[in-house]
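Database export, one record per block. Field names are fixed; values are copied verbatim from the stored entry.
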Amino acid sequence: MENRRLFAFMFLSVATFWIWGQLVAPKLFPPPPKKPVPQQVDADGAKKSEPGISDDSIAAGAVDSAVAEKPADGEQASADGNGEAAPAVHPSVKVNLGSLEPGSGYALQVVLTSEGAAIEEVWLTDPQFRDLKLTDKQARVIGNNSSADRSFTTAVDFIDQQLLKHTPLSLEAVSWKLEQQTENPDGMSATFSFDSPDGRVRLEKTYHLPRIKVVPEQLRTALRSDPSGYTVRIEFKLINLSAEPQELVYEMQGPVGMLLENEEHTSKYRDIKIEFLAGGDDVTTTPKEIVSSVEEHEEQAGHALERKELFELLKSKDKWTGVFRYAGIDVQFFAALVAPLDDRSPELRAEQKLIDRTYPMIVEKDRRDDRKSDISFRMVSTPVKLEAKGGADSVSHQYAFFAGPKRRELLDPLPLAASRVLDYGSWFGFIARGMHWLLDQFYSIGMPYVLAIISLTVLVRGLLFPLSKKQAISAAKMKDLQPKLAELKLKFGDDKEKMARAQMELWRKHNINPLGGCLPLFFQFPIFIGLYTSLNTAVDLRMASFLWIENLAGPDALFRLPFELPFGLGADFSLLPCITVVLFLLQQKMFMPPALDEQQVAQQKMMNFMTIFMGVMFWHQPAGLCIYFIASSLWGIAERTMLGNTSVATATTDETSGEVPERGDDAGRPSASGKPSVKVVTPKPEASAKPPGFMQKLLEMAEEARQNAEKSKKDSTPNRKKRNR
């Protein structure tokens, strides 16, 4: 009986609580409406949920279960058990500075995120800079990485230590408060702020993107020559909110996710470039070098290093401590550079540095090819001293961030003065600059780039025409002297010394300079290097089209093969390198003298092999460079063909005998005596003969020294015999 009453009591109690909780309480005390989760819009217009609970953030370990019940914007959470307040939680937002509209006056669209108060993406506005693969979209020069890293996030160690007590997010990942967003005729700005959990320090970061203020007709010219449109001004301000002086060190991330195009054929991957104020050795560091350094550190440690541990090693062992004018990442046609804005003298900047050290880092390692890894750098400040609130309680550091095409008009002006980023080289850099300038001039008068390249070819070959003419005459003389050289070889046999003297004497009589054929090559080599460099850095060649060629800055890639070619040539079949090699071989066959012995046959085979090898080298080169060599080869064939008759007519005069080989239908045919038929002409006066050249003088001096030595030896022999007696 007692048991039945107990069970009835328990059943009625549970039923009463259920009815109250499910039916009565919701009607009498309805819950407050839930706030909607903010939606973000990316650069493509697609909506994204709040980054704090996105898949990417979860994968990065940035969110725990407590995020679901976070307080509203600016609301301070309750203090923890130690009495220290938890950090304020701000919504994650994105801000666009600039525009992708061509006539907006902006050269960039910069996408900012409150997570770390960072730059997430940078897009180029100029319609010329389309994506190579997705040609309906603009090129995105920054933000092409899939990692959680973002450009210009900032780390402060003592703030991160406070944050770790409440959230796995660091200062570089937590959302900052968007203080303001402004737009005026001068441009757009956005300011983010973050207060340390203990309330002692406030950080403010402001981004300003200027608008190019010109009339629409001048906008295209301004986009090519005005660097201000590609430069974001960054102001980082540290404010002391306490009544005691503060000292802190911050660490700022450099550009992240630099665009890498044409990976299969490019000759240049991402590089770190730093140029220092005091001169000395500038820095150019490749991904492969950084990957090797990281692997060396991990090998010494005996295990894979965590991110923070690795950063400490790189900061202490791989750092650069000089005061830099700029530091950045560059690829073939684009650059992302950071320059401190400091009006002090170089001596004072070196004595009181803003940045104590800069060190490299790996953003994302490419598992197949270390050269394609994404790299960046981090800047560590010197200790920043803040006086107590009410005095000099704030310090502001400003930076200029350039993100755009590598044009000398954009890179040469201060504060960057980064002309070396163009990779013109040190030996023939002035020639490369001149070639680039000529290409720009041809392009500026309305020529398409392919016609500008051909015009440059005609200009260069036209200037070298006097040397080419001498080379053609010298080659014709050498070709006509082949029978006489064959006779000399039969006469002297294996006596190379006498053969060389007789050959030099023959050349001297016929006014042949053995170096004459190499002289044009001597002048063409630096021109070739300069042109190669200029075409590899001419950003206007990018996506310039001609016939089937869609991009003159890369191989013509006629079609894709179903297999990989050997020697690392890739799977693209390019026609222009094949045409270039065929023309080179045709030139050799048309104008090279016939081989007279096995040695010359071997030399010609080696030259043919080297020509084919050059075709392999051309396989990855820009189509514009192949067009230059095709035009140059056609010019050379036409030039030698036109010069052939006149050069041969004047090339074979024998100044000693007054005989020249008969030209015409009977030229070179043996006469009844077995010798080549000749035409007797009046010999030239001996005075008209050119004096012996440098090589001839050297041979004569060597011969004279040898004869004197033999004479001395003969004279000393009888005396030695007399002494022996």
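Remark 1: The two ends are 157 Å apart (CA to CA).
Remark 2: Residues 436 and 538 are 7 Å apart (CA to CA).
End of record.
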